[in-house]
Amino acid sequence: MNTRKTELLAAALSSVFLSSLVARRAPFALMSMRLLLTLSLCLAALAADPRQADIVIYGATSSGVAAAIQASRMGKSVLLLDPGSHIGGLTTGGLSWTDIGNKQVIGGISREFYRRIKAKYERPGAWVHETREHYFSSRRTSNVAAEDAMWTFEPKIASEVYREMLAEHKIKAVLNQRLDLRPGRGVRKRGNAIESILMEGGARYTARMFIDATYEGDLMSKAGVRYTTGRESNSLYGERYNGVQAAHKHGHQFPDGALVSPYIIPGNPASGLLPIINPNGPGVEGEGDKLIQAYCFRMCLSNAPENRIAIGKPAGYEERDHELLLRFAETGKYHPPASKYDPIPNAKTDTNNHGAVSTDYMGANYDYPDGDYQTRARIIKRHEVYQKGYMWTLQNHPRVPESLRNYYRQWGLPKDEFTSNGGWPTQLYIREARRMISPVVMTEQHIIARQVAEDSVGMGAYGMDSHNVQRYVTADGWVRNEGNVQVGGFKPYPISYRSIVPAKEEASNLLVTICLAASHIAYGSIRMEPVFMVLGQSAATAAVQAMDAKVALQDLDYAGLRARLLADKQILTLPR
Q: Can you tell me the mean pLDDT for 43-51?
């Protein structure tokens, strides 16, 4: 029982005791009225306890928002908490060119979101820095005019849609609520069930069901749920594309003929290595390790002069951090400009990593998944300085060929995005952190349909996509990237319900919608924002049904869950 509940119950019992003392002198009817009034007030206060709900969702990401909306629609009280101050995760944080794979398998609240996006861009005043006709006819886009939804958008429009959807259901996200990560704190359990979670500031939140919708999986970890990080060996799950992949051929690599020295003094090993280069080689092909695929910010850039903020040299800039970029540019084989400057409305881009040296900061994130808040803050800031420095270098450094400098100089941060942060995104792209280990782990076998999950709670459809994890020195003394895998060509596949719930003995009332149980390479396919929304909605549905049936999540009747998901327009199998 939480502290507030204890206080209210004590108040009620005290009132009953005092009433009994005056019972001999007060008329019975009057005493009964006073007693009933006191108990009613206590119960009303208890019901209105702002730190208690049927479902507590930790993480106001796209997945957390969808879960909160679904829980509310099913008549349950919900608390949506976030450790930071940003709502919507990557969907509102710069990832505006939606990675889908197959749009047919996006249903429910997720598709509703993209339909609302389309409605926003059908308003007369939506197009300010370019016309709708120009965007759809002259700029590369993943949208089809006759579709019911729109898959590219400005971050501020995504934020607007989420705010409206939450307001319609009277859901207010409680921000800056960081789970207490100190040993022995953060999560209170009774047996295998979570009773409450404790924040750094002392606030304690109580619920019957909990959902971890964070990119980091802190609630899952503090609840004692097993998880892993890094890459598994191919032998563990009988996979092909997991573990070290130095021999895998892909595009995000130094091209043939672009020989770049990894040493401070080119060609001189005695001078030492440039930053974050592994001196020991990539490791054994196919073997596992604890390395994490690279993070970056999905920069929203603009080339509209009236809406552009110049990117200056950031404080903390170190030219040595960009020496590989400069050497690569000097080879004349630097990748074509704008390769991943994906256009979104109003003369803006969703800018992603591309090529051998780009926005991905390889090797700078290894301590992030299990790091404390201070460690993560340092990593996030380091990524910001690196990426701003990368842009400044391309735009200004005399060693960058003039043709490249001239192209990149047209881009700046938009004045009308992330206005509280100088136009810089407020969400680092955490491509992968912790991954739960549950009774069903999604693997490459599920992705390519050698195994099929019979308890689908949503569909994955994207190719198996891992960004590079490291740079190393070849036997010939050149720098090389390792870890990028891009393998597609398969049909959409179901995601198992059992991959979003832990083992029953670990936590009977917790669902995990982003750090779900998947191998590294399978997660590379599942980890798409529309899918996270789908899983958030499905998780909330399961939580409500388990509460109503008074059963553990692991004992929930899947047939009933499936029926409700289908009724709510979730797509659970490949459409015919």
A: 57
Q: Is the distance from CB of 510 to CB of 225 less than 8 angstroms?
A: yes
| Residues forming a β-bridge with 569 | none
Strands 308-309 and 413-414: antiparallel
Q: How many domains does the chain have?
A: 2
Q: What Cα–Cα distance (Å) separates residue 451 from each residue in 234, 266, 300, 492? A: 16, 49, 39, 13
Judged by DSSP in three states, 343 sits in strand
| Alpha-carbon dihedral 308, 313, 318, 319, rounded to 10 degrees | 80
Q: Retrieve residue 56's tokens.
A: 């507590």
pTM of the model: 0.91
Asked whether residue 39 falls in the same domain as residue 99, the answer is no
Closest CA to 415 of 338, 298, 304, 315: 304
Q: What is the pLDDT of residues 172-227, one digit of tens each?
A: 999 999 999 999 999 999 999 999 999 999 999 999 999 999 999 999 999 999 99
Query: Can you tell me whether residue 380 is helix, strand or coil?
Result: helix
* Pairing of β 204-212 and β 510-512: parallel
- Interatomic CA distance for residues 550 and 67, integer angstroms: 20
Residues 39 and 119 in one domain: no
Reported as a pLDDT band with limits 50, 70 and 90, residue 336 is confident
Range of the domain at 23: 3-49
| Residue 15 confidence (pLDDT) above 60 | no
